Amino acid sequence: MNTQKEVFNKLFKEDKVELATQKVELGLSDDLQKIINKSNKITSVVNDYSNDLSKLFREVKNLSDNFDKINDKRNSEIKNGKSTYKEINDIIDKVQTQAKELGIQPKNVPNFSKTLKSSSDLRSAVNDFQKYSDFNL
Q1: Which of 57, 63, 74, 99 could bond to 106 as cystine, CB 3.0-4.6 Å?
Q2: How far apart are alpha carbons 116 and 47 in whole angstroms?
Q3: What is the spatial distance between Cα 136 and Cα 118, in angstroms, rounded to a whole number?
Q4: What is the residue range of 115's domain?
């Protein structure tokens, strides 16, 4: 009976060992699946954020390119505006001088008042444009 007991103990111990090994393998397999799921989720989220950032980068790049084009055109018009402003003021000075020589008020010369307003408007526009001239993205 003692021998039989020993045999049964050994058999049951081996079965227990085999079951324990299978439990460990099953546990590791579950752990692997969990880490794969976690990894896949992180990969998906990171890829989504990367795609969003790529879209935003393209939008910012396009805005920057458009800004540069408009800024270049504006700077060209500022040069035109400054030159035209000088021309207007030269003409205004001539009209005032000639009106004084003729003994009339410059405001009585046709278009003189409109020219003064145009000069003032142009000066304001050119000065307003200059506030963006050094802006870079």
Answers
A1: 99
A2: 61
A3: 31
A4: 2-130
